[in-house]
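Students often ask why we bother encoding 3D structure as a string. The short answer is that it lets us treat folding as translation between two languages. Here is a chain of 252 residues written in the first language.
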Amino acid sequence: MEKKENVMSVAMVALRQASVPAAKDVVHIFKNLWNEETAEEIEDDAFFGFDTPEGQIVCGLMPSPIPWEELEGPCATSLFWENAADELKGHKAHLIVTATPGDGDPIVGARLLTKAVAAILKTKGVVGVYWGAGTLVHSPETFLEHAAQMSEECLPLYLWIDFRVMPDEGDTLTLFTTGMETLGFMEIEVVQSQTEPAEAVDLAFNIAHYLLDNGPVLKDGDTIGMSETQNVSIRHVPSIFTERGNVYRLGF
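And here it is in the second language, the structure alphabet:
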């Protein structure tokens, strides 16, 4: 699967009340957080946008909560936000935030969207973030913590990609990602592995980062390791979920 272009990245920010933060405040915070210049913003009562060196940010108000059927599953499986359901059930409205990278690179778009959402989270009245491409919810504190560590060499994959572990019958586990596809890559799966959950997640994270850094260089039949003793086989095979197409199947 070749890396593909995705011209827009999207996230939702849950709000306590149906009001749009002032564009000048978001732009001011954006400049201070990321030390980047922006073009003059445009805004009205329910919308604002601004340009950056990497692309365009647009933010629009939806005067209703994010549908609970979209949030219920991510709240139940969130790794970093134990009380996500309790916090998000009370929100009254949400912002739809989009980032369109100037060069069409979906990874640049995800970085730009992360920067914009972080700036919005510094304003008043925010409850949390729904990153739909990864079916993930994040508290403002967790999102800002991971975003602050972001660089081209250190991508905040836990904000973008769900690394889901499921116990199998017996002593094995299965892992699958959600979110790689929108970044231009096949998803990653580990099936019936006897490794520990943390080790499986760590390996999948590192291989995902390797792919995002280097492109779709892992071919069917390749092997890779994150240490001199580790030997992980790579297969391009159909997903265990019928709707997902081919995936990177890791064997170790």
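Translate back mentally: The chain has seven helices and 13 strands. Keep this in mind for the problem set.
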